[in-house]
Fold this sequence. Notes:
The structure is a homotetramer.
Chain A: H1 3-10, H2 21-38, H3 45-52, H4 56-62, H5 66-88, H6 94-111, H7 113-121, H8 135-155, H9 161-184, H10 193-202
Helix pairs in contact in A: 2-3, 2-5, 2-7, 3-4, 5-6, 5-7, 5-8, 6-7, 6-8, 6-9, 6-10, 7-9, 8-9
The structure holds a DNA duplex.
Amino acid sequence: MDMDTARLITGTGRKPKGMGPERREEILAHALRLFSEHGVHTVSTRQIAGAVGISQPSLYAYFPTKQALVEEVCKRAFGALTERMRAVIGQASGRDLMATMGRAYVDFGLSQPDAYRVAFMIEVARPDGGLAQDPALMAGIEAYLLHREAVVKVMGGGLSEEAIDLLAQSQWASLHGLVSLLIARPTFPWVDRERLIEAHIDSLLPPPTAKPSRVSGT
Amino acid sequence: MDMDTARLITGTGRKPKGMGPERREEILAHALRLFSEHGVHTVSTRQIAGAVGISQPSLYAYFPTKQALVEEVCKRAFGALTERMRAVIGQASGRDLMATMGRAYVDFGLSQPDAYRVAFMIEVARPDGGLAQDPALMAGIEAYLLHREAVVKVMGGGLSEEAIDLLAQSQWASLHGLVSLLIARPTFPWVDRERLIEAHIDSLLPPPTAKPSRVSGT
Amino acid sequence: MDMDTARLITGTGRKPKGMGPERREEILAHALRLFSEHGVHTVSTRQIAGAVGISQPSLYAYFPTKQALVEEVCKRAFGALTERMRAVIGQASGRDLMATMGRAYVDFGLSQPDAYRVAFMIEVARPDGGLAQDPALMAGIEAYLLHREAVVKVMGGGLSEEAIDLLAQSQWASLHGLVSLLIARPTFPWVDRERLIEAHIDSLLPPPTAKPSRVSGT
Amino acid sequence: MDMDTARLITGTGRKPKGMGPERREEILAHALRLFSEHGVHTVSTRQIAGAVGISQPSLYAYFPTKQALVEEVCKRAFGALTERMRAVIGQASGRDLMATMGRAYVDFGLSQPDAYRVAFMIEVARPDGGLAQDPALMAGIEAYLLHREAVVKVMGGGLSEEAIDLLAQSQWASLHGLVSLLIARPTFPWVDRERLIEAHIDSLLPPPTAKPSRVSGT
DNA sequence: TATGAATGAGTCTTCATTCAT
DNA sequence: GATGAATGAAGACTCATTCAT
Lengths: 218, 218, 218, 218
């Protein structure tokens, strides 16, 4: 009795829906959700397979390893953030651009905590026992460069390359701090979230140097 | 070969060294290091015991549970931070106090990345599969309150309770963002670390220029 | 030597034999035997798996927990007893019914000492450190009710509900005492087992001599 | 620094009370209680030591092994039963003696369920993997012989040796059944316990052959 | 004598992964 | 391409026991 015959007899029903690439996407989506809900370490391949509705070994048709799946999820998450940033970078200019970018960043993190958590806050595998060369942030340099670009647009040409990086990194860190804490410690007695975000974004740029009204200074 | 013979040969003897409280401290130190290097989930009690040089069950003479060990490590880490902050809060005033506090915070995080990581960045147990109610940040409220106190001292009495919290939380988030990113992604192409920190701390408070209040500025 | 090579040499292959439900039954059978031979507490899942010829984790494909396995074994044991009793309750009447039932009970216990031991004599889990609320006897109430039914048939309608229970419980206890002692202490210098059983069952009902009241009989 | 000096300095307080034999008794008493409350397998030497107020290793000064402790506890329990039976065997004669003995047996079991459980119902160690040559029941033959003696007294000389054993063993089994079930399954919907015991004991002997009422016969 | 400290062997259970079909 | 079944390795934790003091 050959394999196909056996299958016909036993009637082991396959899951006909969305094989191939769609199935892969489905897996990634469920994994993203589960990872950020319960943490990468807590979620087992069995759970992922169960959520997708396939068998555990079937995962291995799409990803050679759990680690590979995790990394792909991270890359996707970063991709989503980059996309969001790219979408807004042309929508404003001057100080407004900074506010817009900051808002986009925060909104992304809070509206997709799953993705953000996976991208920035997750303990990734550390193969050799040291700190990891985390593929996620490495891929995230692209997102950083977008942010840096926005800084250039906002600050005009008067800054050195290093000054630009300095500002961009400081701002990035500031934004990340807010988003990560809001996500990670939702039970902390935060002030009104909306006001906090607004104030935080406002503080990203120093107030316009010249007193714009009334008495002018330099 | 009976057991005694085997013991003589392999030399599996008791380890009389450092009993009692010192042993406990030793365990905590190794656990702190391992947790921050590899993550709480990845480090097993076996590994901790191995690092300390004792057997796995011996851990349980000092901590009833891995979770208890983790929590103690967290408490210590937070305690160290609070101590550091308390130490500096009286050493400066005005804007300098803010810089001093910020510097203390960042220094703590960078000089004790293990502790910081454990205290702020670690995935703690999630009881119901939801977000964790972790003892760490809850205990960390004490540290926050110290920071808030500093804000009050710096800003004087002109701010409402809410405004104080707003500023304090935004600053805290900003500091956390910098420290956590520097710790978590050391391989990112950061600008000069010292300048970045300085600039970041400087940006915590708006520049002292003109008092914008009362007299309106746009 | 890599893993594959090692596997070829040691021959650690899969064990395709008897999958699915048969495997489950096989596990139950071995567990029943081992539990009754050595006691539930003494038998480890490793031992059960070893007896069945599968790996320890494979057990968990069939039973989520050792406790679940124990409970299934108990349920089966009780089910077998109930079945046996139900089979004979219609086969006799009058005093004969009592003897038949008693005989069925004793035969069950002695011919399936494993099951009987598991059902009646085993220390089950004690949730609060107190006496156990074990699922076994609770499920065994069904068997008791069958016995009670037989008592009703035998004694006719002249007894109050309470008198019926009184008699049924006393008889049940008596039967249990014999079976459990014969099983538990086989090395005791018992008299001829067959005669003992017969006499014991005979003693369950008072001799039919004269009906002490009303109409005198033989 | 010698040992005694060290002890004086560290002040490791010994427990001065009842050393030697009293201490041994204390251990046995606590063990009996714990074993019957939680089961032999569930109670650890640590728990016993803790209950007694001594250190775990100190147990090994009195009993070479947990098993030895268990066996001693069993022997004591049987001793207590034998004592009780011996105490009542001279207090009655004829049918009353049987009732008195039965009552003593049941009372012993119910008033000292700890001892009874340990003596009769406990899973003892089965060293070779088979059914145990349980030291408890073996020691309990003495108690059986007392019961047998009572049967002789009650039934007069008209019975063969074998008939005596037959009756004695059947009765013993009957009593054991009641006691063990009452102890083991206290939550079963038993009828009034007192009536049940009385009826059960009454049924141990066949009713006096002659109709006792009204017309006397001998 | 008694103990604090320690331990090897064992408990149940879960995991990522692989095999044969 | 998919799966049911299985597994080695590891997880946290407990136990009876022993050693040096």
